[in-house]
What does this fold into?
Amino acid sequence: MLDILSALSRLLAPLWEMSLTAAYAAAILIVLRMVLKKRAPRQVVCLLWLVVFARLLIPVSPESPLSIVPDARPAQEQLTPSQQGPGGQLPVNPVTPTAPVQKPGQAENPGIVTNPVISNPNAPALTLPDGVTPSVPDPQPEAPAPFPWRAVLTGVWLAGGAAMGLYGLISYLRLRRRLFDAIRAQDGAWEHPAVDSPFILGMIRPRIYLPAGLTGQPRRFILCHERAHLRRLDHIVKPVCWAALALHWFNPLVWAAYLLMSRDIEAACDEAVVRQLGPQVKADYSYTLLALATGRRLPAPSPLA
It folds into this structure.
């Protein structure tokens, strides 16, 4: 098992680089978001968040001479072509062989190689007495194997990612089962008494779920808001970003990016409602959002909704 995790840790080496690069980008965007505040439309900020999450999922990044991320390439790759040898290898200084030192009085004969070890054929041979065996030195104790911390970290990462993926899937299935008897209204939305707050569920065939009994102007506001989500494809963007969060759950900046992106998505849809219905609806629209938010038990029915 440790061998499998060790091999997997080597395959996941680009994942850590992706997470580090996206963390730099997320930190810069968080600061930029605080500086701009209400000066920049939230739709623009959401597009910048998509760049961050795309880096978390796509292992290939475009090359650029200018970068805010420190260069972590090996020293060999940072050498200029003029400093590298043929084929991109490191330059090797040639070693000049030195001539052997000749002792005084030695004949200069380049064809004869002298051997400093002189054997005496007349020297007596050393023998051991009968029954005595030569002693063999004890083998040195083997060094303890290093702790497989890479395999352990890979196992922890797998457990965390599997837990997040399982949580998203179970919450989605439970919500679908809970709303199996929802009733479709004439305006295309679905109503159910168990719905406390409006949301969209589904990626291929998304449905707008509204609380039962929501009528009049508040219903018009909320439908306009949820349809803005559909036009922006937020019902696809948010599950994909949740998948990126499940892969990089160990990175706190990715959590911050996901939460702030979710807020900016809602704010962008609010801006779309005001643009569509006019600035005169701001007060009534804000009151509708406040009334629906009162008494909510959870911030969202499911991370995939």
Notes: Confidence is low (pLDDT under 50) at residues 72-78. The longest strand covers residues 207-211. The two ends are 36 Å apart (CA to CA).
